[in-house]
Amino acid sequence: MCLSIPAKIESINGDMAICTVGGVATQTSLQMLDVNDLQPGDFVLIHTGFALQKISKEEAEATLALFDEFEAFNEMLDEEENQTGQRIV
Amino acid sequence: MQYIDEFRDKEKIVSLVNRIHFESKKPMRIMEVCGGHTMAIQRFGIPGLLPGHINLVSGPGCPVCVTDRAFIDKAIAFSRLPDVIIATYGDLIRVPGSSSTLDKEKALGADIRIVFSILDALTLAKRNKHKKIVFLGIGFETTAPGTAAGIVKAQMAGLFNFFVFSAHKIMPPPMAALIDQGVKIDGYLGPGHVSTVTGSAMYHFIPEKYKLGVVISGFEPLDILQSIYMLVLQHESNHPKVEIQYSRVVKPEGNTKALELLDEVFTLDNDWWRGLGVLPKSGLKIHEKYAEFDAEKMIPVEVEPTREDKGCICGSILKGVASPADCKLFKKACTPSDPVGACMVSSEGACAAHFRFQKS
Ligand code: SF4
């Protein structure tokens, strides 16, 4: 029900678009978004035939970049464990 | 960027899990209030990755599960009318009513069509002018704008054989009611797709009034773990607040067009929630202006008295005070192929998710 999936816009026709999810094409209404802000290649979140939001590439990259910081922290912990011979977590 | 695999990276998961173990000291109960999260948490085995003192509990986030049995009974009554075609999302058709299901009625000859979008139901109305199309509107703020759009379209197109039977609901009232009713939790994993529509402001009362954090989360393992991590930091520092982890989709202001549609077509009314009872101003009823599309007002029907099933503890599960394993019927009399309660029918229901993803 609440399943909403990232889909790629293939083509836009008025306030309708053809979007693909894992290669499968679906008709999607863009009426809840600003069509001028969208173009083929963009990803949108679709739910019961409507695009609910454009997915922000910048924000996705920013989220992923945060995880790199965690990895660095992890290496630091590993290092400390090696040196002290004690498990931290 | 495909927005899926990137958020399932094993190495990143490991480092994030370590970070949670490192930061988390105090015991915590985190509740998810979105069926999509319930499924993802079980599917990716998130509980097993967390420190033993962090408990994840499911809340009232599965739309099918919280829906009143009387709604199913009435939908069945509609389906028995000779001039009615029922259009519904697939999730509903196996939900047990008091003495039948939509699926059984279909086998007996009722005209019941599964649709993926209300737009398909409008097409049905166009093609079947001599029939009444009754669309079953269930779901939270994620789904309700589509229903609203459908009603507005029906009016513009003059499709007066199109009707909606609405059980749409909104999320903040049960989130408040749970705490008011004494359910113990230390933070909410906020519903990502509901919030795509609503934005984040509607949760501010939760830290303000109840001193609980809300982190609006995406649905991939890294999203969920990061949200848990954010809740842990809030809990450890005693600084509950509303944060958005799922920022690639959720904006603080939500989706204005979708919110306008909700405002245009629906009004808030008291509504019944499985497990929680009647909650004030928690249901979306069709506005007087659009009464001619309201199935309840336009199509009179006799409904059998509602009977609840004995033994099903779905209500307590939706409240986060019991887990599926506590139910005597779980995996015995109640399975996905022969479900007793709604929590086993919907793939987002806690019972179905536990059944599917927990190997015993
Ligand atoms: S296992 Fe079945 S009977 Fe038991 S609570 Fe879940 S849905 Fe109800």
Model description:
The complex is a heterodimer of chains A (89) and B (360). Chain A has one helix and five strands; from the N terminus they run E-E-E-E-E-H. Chain A has one helix at residues 57-84, and strands at 5-13, 16-21, 24-29, 43-47, 50-54. In chain A, a hairpin with a 2-residue loop joins strand 1 (5-13) and strand 2 (16-21). The two termini of chain A are 38 Å apart. In chain B, helix 1 (10-23) runs parallel beside helix 12 and helix 2 (35-43) runs parallel beside helix 17 (350-357). In chain B, strand 3 (84-88), helix 6 (102-107) and strand 4 form a beta-alpha-beta unit. Helix content of chain B is 39%, strand content 16%. With 360 residues, chain B is an alpha/beta fold. Chain B is built from 17 helices and eleven strands. Chain B is globular, with a radius of gyration of 21 Å. Chain B has a domain at 68-170 and 254-298: Rossmann fold. Chain B has helices spanning 10-23, 35-43, 46-49, 63-66, 69-79, 102-107, 118-127, 144-157, 172-180, 192-198, 205-210, 221-237, 256-265, 295-298, 314-318, 342-345, 350-357; strands at 28-32, 54-58, 84-88, 111-114, 132-137, 162-166, 187-190, 213-216, 242-244, 266-273, 277-286. Chain B starts with 9 loop residues before the first helix and ends with a helix. The chains are: A alpha+beta (89), B alpha/beta (360). The structure holds iron/sulfur cluster (SF4).
